[in-house]
Amino acid sequence: MKSGQINLNQSQISILTEDGRVYFDMAGTDNPCFGCGACCRHFRVSFYHGEMDTQTGGHVPAELCSQITPFRACMKGTESGGAPCIALQADMRCGIYAQRPSVCREFPVFMPDGSLNPECVRLREMFGIGRNAAA
């Protein structure tokens, strides 16, 4: 594990960024996100427009984004919430995981005590997905 990383669970790695934010990366075969996509189907995925790859230092593919305000963008499909993100693939995995916006990187699936994030649990129940990884 690299410096600045904390393993909260076998699936979630916490990464402290240079500017003090915490990003989460998911790995492993017991990842509860696999086959779920509930957050990607429910929330508006909005972020600072500087994260788009048309901006210096940006990485989110701009062709997958919609402009909300002069300084905010969101992933297409999520403009009004309650619709799937354009990057969500048929297998319910992110098609741009390495290029996903900060709002996605900052969403912890697991809480510090190892339990699932209550929002994750709520959305999984709303979509009829159990608490465990999809079978």
Please provide a written account of the structure.
With 135 residues, the chain is of the alpha+beta class. It has one domain. Helix content is 13%, strand content 17%. The strands form 2 sheets. Strands 1-2-3 form a 3-stranded antiparallel β-sheet, with no helix packed on it. The longest helix has 9 residues. The radius of gyration is 15 Å and the shape is globular.
What's the layout of helices and strands?
Elements: E1 5-7, E2 12-16, E3 22-26, H1 38-42, E4 46-48, E5 65-67, E6 72-75, H2 102-105, H3 118-126
Antiparallel strand pairs: 1-2, 2-3, 4-6, 5-6
Shape, per Cα inertia axes: globular
Structural class: alpha+beta
**Strand arrangement in the largest pleated sheet:** 1-2-3
Fraction in helix = 10-25%
Parts with pLDDT < 50 across at least 5 consecutive residues: 1-8
Number of strands: 6
What kind of sheet is the major sheet?
Answer: 3 strands, antiparallel
Over all CA atoms, what is the radius of gyration?
A: 15 Å
Summed up, the helix count is: 3
Order of helices and strands: EEEHEEEHH
Number of domains: 1
Strand percent estimate: 15-25%
End-to-end separation in angstroms reads 29 Å
Tell me, rounded to a whole number, the average pLDDT.
Answer: 85
Question: Main attributes?
Answer:
3-stranded antiparallel β-sheet, 6 strands, 13% helix, 135 residues, alpha+beta, globular
